Amino acid sequence: MQGIDLHTHSNISDGTLSPELLVQAAIDVNLHTLALTDHDTMDGLQRARIAAQGHDLKIISGTEISSQWSRPTTKKSYGVHIVALNMQNEAPILEALEQQKRVRAQRAKVICDLLEKCIGFQIYEDVLAKVEDQADRITRTHIAKTLVEKKVVTRPQQAFDRFLKEGRRAFVKFEGLGLKETIDMIHESKGLAVLAHPTRYDFSATNVRYLIELFAASGGDAIELPPPMETLSTRQMIDRMIEQYQLAVSIGSDFHGENMPWIKLGNTPKPTANQQGVWERFL
Ligand code: AMP
Ligand code: MN
Ligand code: MN
Ligand code: MN
Question: Ligand 1 centroid to 162 CA: how many Å?
Answer without folding.
Answer: 13
